[in-house]
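Service request form, structural biology core

Requester: graduate student, group of Dr. S.
Request type: structure prediction, single chain
Budget code: on file
Notes: please return the result as structure tokens.

Sequence provided:
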Amino acid sequence: MLTDMEVDKVTRRLRRIKGQVEGIERMVEDHRYCIEVLQQIGAVRAALYQVGMIMLESHSRSCVVEAIKKGNEDDAITELMGVYKSLHK
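Core staff response, request fulfilled:
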């Protein structure tokens, strides 16, 4: 579960990402050079990855720890690894 501070941090990042995506849309509409568009796509992907890592860390520190305390470590680790792998595709 995200703390209030983490929610603020993630929300700010997502708003910035939204602006970047809108910028990419304008670049495409303006027929900008493909490499410039691709660079911006890479920047958005990196920013989303960082948001995912914040979420993953928060989940690990709260939900996974709680599951382990309750004796559900195998399920928690399986779920965690599945999400981690999806972030690295």
